[in-house]
Fold each of these.
Amino acid sequence: MLFCSRFAVRSAGRRDADGHVAHRATATEDPIGRSINCFHFVNPGGTLAVMKTLIISLGMLCALALVAHGQDVTKATAKLDSKSGSQVTGTVTFAKTGDDVQVIADISGLKPGKHGIHLHEKGDCSAADAASAGAHFNPTHGHHGGPMTADRHAGDLGNIEADASGKAHLDWKGKMSLSGADSIIGKSVVVHEKEDDLKTDPSGNSGARIACGVIEAAK
Ligand SMILES: [Cu+2]
Ligand SMILES: [Zn+2]
């Protein structure tokens, strides 16, 4: 592209909007005889194009890295809401520790004694009786058991035991996935009215669902 100006001295070495550099000046005259200078704006070789490509590539790499990092979930939480007319609420946290996941639950509003607690297959606590949460989370197609049983549902966490004030605390560590095909993210935690017998398939005969919360990835 050719650029002519009466003030061309100030244009020496300048770049146009595309990054093309003013390359060579020729003195000439405009139609009324005034001296003007013209510049050829040329693409300064491939350098700039290569730089642009590099910058765009680096940007895309960073974006990919962020996406990959987003999939590498190491913590999750579930906030439990009351179900089936109960007063039960609580919080469950999941934290990756080495090859295991540590599960810590603090539940209140319970009747004193043992209550079944499981991960259920659907992250849907919308039903008043939490039936929407579906069956126990069971990606390995096992049978109902307890947290230490060889043949079990991945979601079988056994029981929590409430004290006289109705509070229960669980601190359990075991095999569980926070990412990948068998991830617990998007599933739910359900607390039951009765004690889980740790053997009756498919639900441990633990009665009504009295609290439910969806498991969400956390930072
Ligand atoms: Cu359950
Ligand atoms: Zn089960």
Amino acid sequence: MEARPAIEGGCACGAVRYRALDAGFLPYACHCQGCQRRQGSAFALNQQVLAADFSCTGATTQGRVTSVSGAQVTHTACAACLTRVYTANDRRPDLVTIRTGTRDDSPQMSPAFHIWTSSMQPWIDLPGHVPAFTGQPDEAEWLHLVRPAGEVEGLAAEPR
Ligand SMILES: [Zn+2]
Ligand SMILES: [Zn+2]
């Protein structure tokens, strides 16, 4: 089996660093109002990795919010500089969602699809070839979009 490349990243001050293996999940943009507010920006850029492949060092602080889909989401930030580095979603316990902008190679990342464009900021002009959804795709469709290579062994496809 081909070795999966590593994903490395961390916070702005360098106190928090993480490492994961790229499990084939693509970065995507969420334009929901919750992400806009939590990011303090126009949208969130997210990417999933397997929780089993993810490790993080450095002092962190956590915050818990209810997502637009109703899931409980725990955000983890650097305790020193408050860069939000990753989230965990109680409906997808096998996955960790990293903030793509915290990857060391983030300038090379572009979203494979866009969700919640119903609340997208009006100045954004999406490229026509990238799939976009006005809301949240259902879980099976989301899994297909986010990981076109197919199912991950041991990962539940059904929402919990
Ligand atoms: Zn920091
Ligand atoms: Zn969102």
